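Sample 3 of the quickstart, ligand S-adenosylmethionine:
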Amino acid sequence: MKNPPETMFETAFAEDTYKGLTNYPKYLLSKYIYDKKGDKLFQQIMDMPEYYLTSCELDILKINSEAIAKSFSSDSGFDLIELGAGDGKKTKIILKELVDKNFQFDYLPVDISQNVLEELESSLQKEIPEVNVKIQQGTYFKTLEKLSEYNTRKKVILVLGSNIGNLSHKEAVEFLANIAQAMSEDDMLFMGFDQKKNPQTILDAYNDPSGITEEFNKNLLVRINSELDGEFDTNSFFHWETYDPETGTAKSFLVSKKPQKVVIKRLGLEINFEAWESINTEISQKYDDSIVNWLADEAGLHVEKYFGDKENCYKNYIFRRK
Ligand SMILES: C[S@@+](CC[C@H](N)C(=O)[O-])C[C@H]1O[C@@H](n2cnc3c(N)ncnc32)[C@H](O)[C@@H]1O
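Result:
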């Protein structure tokens, strides 16, 4: 049953879950962590002291908001398209600056989670009502197919939170190349990349003692139970994090504490787990300038400039088409 007919699946979540759990080694895709509960858990992660990514990027955006807003601006206005916008916590710093400076723009946040987009829209109505916001539910790759339709004025593509780190280098090049293809000469890409640093700092960011990250990862099993009639006992798995300083890849796993069979009724699947067998649930790639330049070059982009925090733990790069 390795290649079942596509018609067997009701949703992309069902199909991807089937593929991941019948693969060896087993995996699940992190984009499915984000539903109402996953969104809330990610907001709690952003508030954790160990999750340095948020505070580093917030600092960069606050300190450089004027220069960043200026680099976005254009006499004829622009479209600000944010991929994987989440709750827009950090984006609001830039949106506020753009509004204060009277720049003309539409804000198009894209996210796989309809829930987080609705929250973002209503919080913007309260906090920065001047922003003309048009939420777009969908995956990055589906949205990128439509991106070149925005071609009547400048496009600024925004990706914060080191979202690109959830992709392998091969997928990241494909992602960047798709963006590059949709860009014209004046368009720009503004993207955050978490940097390589003390491996312990990275491990701690994905391994908090309060167990929020564990619950976040286990939300995949919770969603399989509720949406696909699965029978995972979430207590019989635990969260495990690794970081390889050579490749710069942090990986999250759920590890089975015992041999067990798990039925997923809507997929007609019974999955066997050996004791200590893992499911890879997320990768969080870390970068340095040479890797970012290499990815850009492969994708047909070049780095124009970057903004870093004072220790260069995190950097936001401006890319243009080559
Ligand atoms: C790590 S969070 C970061 C959110 C925000 N950019 C920030 O920095 O706070 C990733 C966000 O991207 C969304 N996301 C993840 N994978 C996605 C995909 N393949 N397509 C669209 N959205 C995705 C998630 O729903 C989530 O809101």
